[in-house]
Design brief:
Layout lengths: L6 H7 L4 H14 L7 H10 L4 E6 L5 H7 L10 H4 L1 E5 L7 H14 L4 E6 L2 E2 L7 E2 L2 E2 H10 L1 E7 H6 L1 H4 L7 E2 L1 H4 L6 E4 L6 H14 L12 H4 L10 H6 L9 H5 L17 H4 L8 H4 L23
Parallel strand pairs: 1-2, 1-3, 3-7, 7-9
Antiparallel strand pairs: 4-8, 5-6
Helix pairs in contact: 2-3, 3-11
The structure holds iron/sulfur cluster (2 copies).
Length: 313
């Protein structure tokens, strides 16, 4: 059996230079708020380990999380996510279908028993098994089977982390989050967001490969490096909030000048996420910079938390 290349060997084969590799390690350390001394440790981990076998299951979701990660078009932390892992099964991206796809999944789970990463996108219906099935297997059974021998589990997006839109009142399918259905003690991390920040996913996987554990988490199992502060804390409109300068319409002169969008329903003050610092689309912008308030998408049950356009107070 041939020895799989390490992550750095794989990237080298893909055309990545040594300089870009070290830059990736430095950017990841910075994104994870790790000291600069950890860059060499990250580099050593990626130089010595193969890409982790990964099973990616899509349940009740819009596949927006996957779409978001595929849209990155520059050599960034986002783009490298799919190069960092060995994607053995992905409902949305795989070319295989039917029995051959399911065979690939079970073979990958057996070959990597106890060592594969399980990534879940979407909530899991629990009211009736027939609400959502893959190859005749209910989402719930599929999840429990895959979680049994996973090394660690990542719930990607707000649906997998908290139930998302499928769980919004009246929750007709009995949608539940990954954490609610996990019956073993496998390490679980939530990366909520609608969609989640791709850099947060890349960052926590690199951390797990380097240190063998998830980074520090908050009480909702979210990595503190990305969810330790509110969007409001780092918002470019914050100075206007402090001065009491609030836009009253999305197209008024104040909004265009950069005044705060609080009166237009912005949920930034109670939303924990790193959008204002990492930004979106390879660092181009984030919602408040583009002129719209935060919807609170990385907080539990945000679909049921009143109107997106009603002020918090
Ligand atoms: S626009 Fe929202 S996040 Fe930005 S300062 Fe105003 S309330 Fe805070
Ligand atoms: S700004 Fe708010 S609603 Fe928009 S992606 Fe970030 S956390 Fe979600």
């Amino acid at each position: 059996m041939s020895i799989p290349p390490t992550i750095s060997q794989y990237w080298q084969h893909q055309g990545m230079s040594r300089r870009d590799f070290l830059q990736f390690c430095a950017m990841t350390a910075a994104a994870m708020a790790l000291p600069i001394t950890m860059v060499s440790r990250i580099a050593a981990a990626l130089e010595n380990q193969p890409r982790p076998a990964t099973i990616w299951l899509n349940f009740q979701d819009c596949t927006g999380c996957t779409e978001s990660m595929m849209r990155a078009d520059a050599p960034s932390l986002e783009r490298l996510l799919f190069d960092l892992i060995s994607l053995d099964y992905h409902h949305t991206l795989q070319a295989a279908a039917g029995e051959s796809a399911e065979l690939a999944r079970t073979q990958a789970m057996v070959a990597n028993e106890g060592n594969y990463l399980l990534i879940v996108e979407g909530s899991i219906p629990t009211d009736q098994a027939g609400y959502a099935t893959t190859a005749g297997v209910s989402n719930q059974d599929l999840f429990i089977e895959a979680a049994e021998n996973a090394k660690a589990i990542i719930a990607i997006g707000t649906c997998a982390s908290y139930g998302g839109i499928a769980r919004a009142y009246p929750n007709p399918t009995g949608a539940k989050s990954v954490g609610e259905l996990l019956t073993n003690n496998k390490p679980l991390i939530n990366i909520p967001g609608c969609p989640p920040l791709p850099v947060a996913i890349t960052g926590v996987i690199v951390h797990f490969l380097t240190f063998g554990e998830w980074p520090l988490l908050d009480n909702l199992q979210r990595p503190l490096a990305f969810f330790g502060r509110t969007v409001h804390d780092r918002c470019s409109r914050r100075a206007f909030y402090e001065k009491g300068l609030f836009a009253s319409r999305f197209d008024d002169p104040g909004a265009k000048t950069g005044w705060c969008l609080y009166q237009l329903g912005c949920k930034g003050p109670f939303t924990y996420n790193a959008c204002a610092t990492t930004k979106w689309n390879d660092g181009v912008s984030f919602p408040m910079e583009a002129g719209h308030g935060c919807l609170g998408c990385s907080q539990p049950y945000f679909w049921d938390n009143d109107s997106f356009y009603r002020p918090l107070s």
